[in-house]
TrEMBL record:
The modification N6-(pyridoxal phosphate)lysine is found at residue 29. One of its GO terms (molecular function) is pyridoxal phosphate binding. Pyridoxal 5'-phosphate (PLP)-binding protein, which is involved in PLP homeostasis. It comes from Planococcus koreensis. HAMAP family: PLP_homeostasis. Signal peptide: none annotated. It comes from the Bacteria. The keyword Chaperone does not apply. Residues 10-217 form the Alanine racemase N-terminal domain. This is Pyridoxal phosphate homeostasis protein. Keywords: Pyridoxal phosphate.
Length: 222
């Protein structure tokens, strides 16, 4: 596979030319420990996993000052295995999950509320029109800090449609931030993957989540 460092530098430059300060999360869910270590050696400081098993495997073998992002659907019964080992959760999408986090987290957890902007049945997430009420309902949960919103673009090659979805998430994020809720500063926007991170950056992403285009994919590590 390609060396990670030059790819990381290219993507960093590409994003910096759009807007400085965008955080790149290397999604390592499809690669093993060695490749993850290579990502860290290349200077990557944010890593993303979408399964408790993958996260545990990497935490066991990797000891470095990096931030771990949990980006996948999180089953309620898995919360206890995950929440105290991560820095960010990108998939807060229901009240029952919030309740379990409140019960299990030892300190406040930085969470992104996942929004189903494209309203696809196959996607999880809160509907846009319900997002503000959902976030308001988290006021009493002192273990949950809503740092931002997250979405996944629809699975399409229609870049105009993808752009519309990202614009809507950004506008919603700014709307929540304007409420200035103590538990929900909501200053961040997690959107953009390998195929659409440029569009996401142009539309105001502060975190992009890049897997295959950055660290590749090793089928045996799945
Ligand atoms: C897998 C995944 C990514 C990265 O996808 P790539 O297309 O490989 O860049 C980003 N976000 C989420 C939520 C994912 O599950």
């Amino acid at each position: 596979m390609n060396a990670i460092k030059p790819v990381f530098e290219n993507i960093t430059n590409e994003l910096n030319s759009i807007r400085p300060g965008i955080n790149i999360i290397a999604v390592t869910k499809q690669v093993g420990v060695e490749r993850t270590q290579e990502a860290i050696d290349a200077g990557i400081r944010h890593l993303g996993e979408n399964r408790p098993e993958g996260l545990a495997l990497k935490l066991q073998s990797i000891d470095a000052g990096v931030s771990w992002h949990y980006i996948g659907n999180l089953q309620t019964r898995k919360v206890k295995d995950v929440v105290n080992n991560i820095d960010y959760l990108h998939s807060l999408d229901r009240l029952s999950l919030a309740k379990e986090i409140q019960k299990r987290a030892e300190k406040p957890l930085k969470c992104f509320v996942q929004v189903n902007v494209s309203n696809e049945e196959t996607k999880s997430g809160i509907l846009p029109e319900e997002t503000l009420d959902f976030i308001r309902s988290l006021t009493a949960f002192d273990k949950i800090q809503v740092v931002g919103l997250m979405t996944m673009a629809p699975n399409t090659s229609d870049s105009a449609l993808i752009r519309t979805v990202f614009k809507e998430l950004k506008s919603l994020q700014l709307q929540v931030a304007a409420e200035k809720m103590e538990h929900a500063p909501c200053t961040e926007c997690s959107m953009g993957m390998s195929n659409d991170y440029v569009i996401a950056a142009q539309e105001g992403a502060t975190f992009v989540r890049i897997g295959t285009a950055l660290v590749g994919s090793e089928s045996e590590a799945k």
